[in-house]
């Protein structure tokens, strides 16, 4: 029996220590997923904790028909979607993202060469994250899972419980919108 | 390789993680396809920027805060155990009072004499007698099957001050009643299909009574706060879940199946 399997059995039997050890592998990844979905460290921590509390409460019902990581990610995705719905965050469709005026708080970096490349890059990444945050959640999640966390199409399909074709379609459309949005400052 | 495949593999190609054979096929395709070449060229800066997003560390103290929340979740967990404890406790208390009352009523007729005041029990004697019995010994018949679970739970013994146990019961019962159950759950699924049947199966699995079933609405009776967490997790496997902010007034939840 592998280490994770053993911990899982102990966690299902109610062993909190085993559960905490089991989830330690996933905490950082889930936190970063929530962070990229919300673009807020405060929200990301709150949501990440909510995810693992929900995992803890229902670990006994986990039958192992899917990978544990897939199951945890799916809960994380749903928690983020619920948060988005409650906050009724302002989001734009892909076509609007292409045409929208610049509303960024941070000034666009100058196009002239600068010795402080890392500062520029950091600014560009902040702008990128703002653009990602303005995508609809279903496009945001696939971009994060594929282009930032590097999961396969099949894994993303399992996590989000959508067909493979839908995953690829959403990624292509999200990339197209982001390409247009970042073109101005890259 | 078709243009559609180039789009699917572009990110892995740019990251250098594509298998050699696929990479060669893609490169061969790019030679004769200016459209895909332009796509790759335009995608590269974006993917490079995203690749530069470093994984952030967990906030300081994260695991301690999570541990506290998990402990709190653990304490709230045993609503089922509470229910069993409450049933055992209340049955025991009722039996204790019934026994004490019957002793009070029957004793004058038991042949220990006529109604001799000296044989009448003192009020304090009755109270003392009832306290000699622990709750576990007062369990009514039929509860023996719960003995295994009962052994794992702390026994509620009648204290000298019987209101202590009553206060504990009141606190637990209040917590149970005040658990905020949402009045509605919205389940967004790609196609309705068998979703309704699957929800009924989930309800049966967790002993939730189905009160009503219309085309896209199913009303369930919730008797245990833990049932709602199990229900939400199972529904999350079917589709996207949203809960209503309004609290249920009568421990019922209506699941609305919405097609996305």
Question: Explain this structure to me?
Answer:
The complex is a heterodimer of chains A (186) and B (260). Chain A is mainly alpha-helical and 186 residues long. Chain A has helices at residues 3-12, 16-38, 41-58, 68-87, 94-99, 117-133, 137-148, 153-160, 164-183. Chain A has two domains: 3-87, Rna Polymerase Sigma Factor, Chain: A (Orthogonal Bundle), CATH 1.10.1740.10; 94-183, Arc Repressor Mutant, subunit A, CATH 1.10.10. Chain B is α+β, with helices and mostly antiparallel strands and 260 residues long. A five-stranded mixed sheet of chain B has the order 2-3-5-1-4, covered by helices on one side. Chain B folds into three domains: 3-51, no CATH class; 79-177, no CATH class; 180-259, no CATH class. The interface between A and B is large, with 50 and 45 residues.
Uncertain stretches of 5 or more adjacent residues of chain B: 79-83, 112-178
Number of DSSP E strands of chain A: 0
Shape of chain A: globular
Per the CATH scheme, the topology name of the largest domain in chain A is Arc Repressor Mutant, subunit A
Please count the helical segments of chain A.
Answer: 9
Number of domains of chain B: 3
CATH superfamily heading of the largest domain in chain A:
Winged helix-like DNA-binding domain superfamily/Winged helix DNA-binding domain
Q: Number of helical runs of chain B?
A: 10
The amount of beta strand of chain B, in percent, is 5-15%
Basic shape of chain B? elongated
Beta-strand fraction estimate of chain A: under 5%
Largest interface, chains and sizes:
A-B, 50 and 45 residues
Structural class computed from helices and strand pairing of chain B: alpha+beta
Radius of gyration of chain A: 19 Å
How many domains is the backbone of chain A divided into?
2
Oligomer: heterodimer
Rg of chain B (CA only): 33 Å
């Amino acid at each position: 029996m592998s280490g994770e399997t053993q911990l899982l059995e102990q966690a299902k039997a109610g062993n909190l220590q085993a559960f905490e050890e089991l989830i330690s592998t996933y905490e950082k990844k889930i936190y970063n997923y929530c962070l990229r979905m919300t673009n807020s460290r405060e929200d990301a921590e709150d949501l990440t904790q909510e995810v693992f509390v929900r995992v803890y409460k229902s670990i006994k019902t986990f039958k192992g028909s899917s990978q544990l990581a897939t199951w945890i990610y799916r809960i994380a995705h749903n928690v983020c979607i619920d948060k988005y719905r409650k906050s009724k965050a302002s989001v734009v469709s892909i076509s609007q993202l292409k045409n929208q005026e610049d509303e960024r708080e941070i000034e666009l970096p100058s196009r002239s060469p600068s010795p402080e490349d890392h500062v520029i890059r950091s600014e560009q990444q902040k702008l990128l994250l703002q653009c990602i945050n303005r995508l609809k959640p279903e496009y945001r999640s696939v971009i994060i899972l594929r282009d930032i966390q590097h999961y396969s199409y099949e894994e993303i399909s399992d996590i989000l419980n959508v067909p493979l074709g839908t995953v690829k379609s959403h990624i292509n459309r999200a990339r197209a919108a982001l390409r247009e949005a970042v073109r101005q400052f890259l | 390789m078709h243009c559609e495949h180039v789009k699917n593999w572009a990110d892995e190609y740019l990251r250098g993680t594509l298998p050699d054979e696929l990479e060669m096929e893609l490169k061969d395709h790019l030679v004769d396809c200016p459209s895909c070449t332009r796509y790759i060229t335009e995608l590269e800066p974006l993917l490079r920027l995203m690749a530069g997003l470093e994984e952030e560390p967990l906030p300081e103290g994260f695991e301690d805060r999570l541990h506290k929340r998990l402990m709190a979740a653990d304490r709230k967990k045993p609503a089922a155990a509470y229910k069993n404890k409450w049933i055992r406790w209340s049955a025991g208390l009722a039996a204790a009072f019934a026994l004490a009352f019957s002793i009070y009523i029957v004793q004058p007729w038991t042949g220990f004499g006529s109604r001799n005041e000296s044989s009448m029990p003192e009020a304090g004697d009755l109270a003392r007698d009832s306290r000699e019995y622990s709750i576990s010994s007062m369990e009514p018949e039929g509860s023996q099957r719960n003995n295994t679970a009962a052994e794992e739970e702390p026994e509620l013994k009648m204290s000298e001050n019987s209101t202590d146990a009553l206060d504990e019961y009141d606190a637990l019962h209040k917590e149970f009643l005040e658990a905020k159950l949402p009045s509605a759950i919205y389940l967004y699924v790609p196609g309705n299909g068998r979703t309704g049947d699957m929800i009924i199966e989930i309800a049966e699995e967790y002993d939730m009574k189905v009160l009503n079933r219309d085309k896209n609405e199913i009303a369930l009776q919730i008797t245990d706060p833990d049932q709602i967490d199990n229900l939400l997790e199972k529904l999350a496997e079917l589709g996207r879940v949203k809960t209503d902010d309004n609290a249920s007034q009568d421990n019922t939840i209506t699941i609305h199946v919405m097609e996305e």
